[in-house]
Amino acid sequence: MPSKKTPTPTLSTEQSSKILMVRKLAELLKKHDLTEIKLAEKDSSIVLRSKHETIGTFTQPVSAPAATISTEADKSSSTDDDNCYIQTSPFIGTFYTAPSPDAEPFVKVGSVISEGQSLCIVEAMKLMNEIESDVTGTLVAILAENQQSVEYGQPLFKIQIN
Fold first, then answer.
1. Model confidence at 31, in pLDDT bands (50, 70, 90)?
2. Quick one: 80 and 153 in the same domain?
3. Are residues 42 and 86 in the same domain?
4. Which domain holds residue 140?
């Protein structure tokens, strides 16, 4: 029985030129150590981002209460690290401990936290995203500083699981 070959799709000249353009943009991104390239035409647009993207600090003139920052001494305190959960940032953005500059922080060290409870806000692309706790427990440390940039996967809170 003869084997069936899947037909190779043929690309139009326009499709080929767009693929070539994307490749050239990717080369420019890498060659010049850029984090992003945006190109918009009448009927289409493309955005290329580097995997190693670094985002500058988003700043807003706010005067929220200062966050408690964990130090190395705090990390080596008597809490059982095996029974702690580290809540991480789900994306890149700016970390805020309170819903507004004049409001109380969502949580403080020593607060009893329920699963689903709001812990902070991470602003990403002008959107304020409330970050909710994944576990129930007691807040041991706040690992990020208020109004500072955070990265994807960066530890934000250390929670002793009850």
1. confident
2. yes
3. no
4. 72-161
